[in-house]
Amino acid sequence: MTVDIVGSTSTLVSEKIEEAGLSAPSGIAGVMLAGLLSDTLNLTSPTTTDRDKVAAERLSRWAFVRGSTLEKETRESYGAKVLSASGGLSTRDPQDVVTGDMKIYTAGTTNFAIAQVEVSSLNEVTDHVPALMDALDYLRKTKNVDFAMLMVTDVVRGSSRLLFSNAPALLDELPYQPLPDNTRMAEGVVSRKKQLLPVVLGLLEI
């Protein structure tokens, strides 16, 4: 087992392949590169490491070889396509949205949940706010947490929209633009662990 601090498992796998003196076939390298670019938001996420960037270059060399189906791609163009392929909210059940990537945290005596979903555009969020709020309320009650949040992340633009269920008054101090529908726009925020969570914990621990 390998445990290491990188932004994507694809990075570790590509390193092992190269260490063995081998290279991955174009098709496999393309799949691995897609996973890496998705995990790191095309190398823009705060969780991206220098090793991820080196791995992206390595996998690009293997994937975009002459004669392959990806030969006309670049890392930038391929990454844009990978991110744009993120599923929309219209095709997903709201309960699946709020439970698909959800983590529970504790700050003192407060337990809370933050879920995250990736979309290719935040323009579609508004029509789904009521259904997502209902799903978030249900999540909060079934998980027996004090409050719950949903982070809808635009992987192309690099920003997020935040939805809340039973948010405490302390979260009124979040440094993100309030919107009329009781959501907030978090410009430039894409990482739950590195960007949103520290701000939330900072307010709860005051």
Report on the architecture of this protein.
The protein is α+β, with helices and mostly antiparallel strands. The chain folds into 2 domains: 9-84, Alpha-Beta Complex (inorganic pyrophosphatase (n-terminal core)); 89-204, DHHA2 domain (Diaminopimelate Epimerase, Chain A, domain 1, Roll). Helix content is 42%, strand content 17%. The protein has 7 helices and 6 strands; from the N terminus they run αααααββαββββα. The chain has helices at 9-19, 26-39, 50-63, 75-84, 94-99, 125-143, 192-204, and strands spanning 102-107, 110-119, 147-154, 159-165, 177-178, 184-186. It has a 6-stranded mixed β-sheet. A hairpin with a 5-residue loop joins β5 (177-178) and β6. α1 (9-19) crosses α3. The longest helix has 19 residues, at 125-143. It is elongated.
The CA-CA distance between the termini, in Å, is: 39 Å
Largest sheet: 6 strands, mixed
CATH topology of the largest domain: Diaminopimelate Epimerase, Chain A, domain 1
Mean pLDDT: 93
Structural class given helices, strands, pairing?
alpha+beta
Descriptors:
206 residues; alpha+beta; inorganic pyrophosphatase (n-terminal core); Diaminopimelate Epimerase, Chain A, domain 1; 2 domains; six-stranded mixed beta sheet; 7 helices; 6 strands; 42% helix; elongated; DHHA2_dom_sf
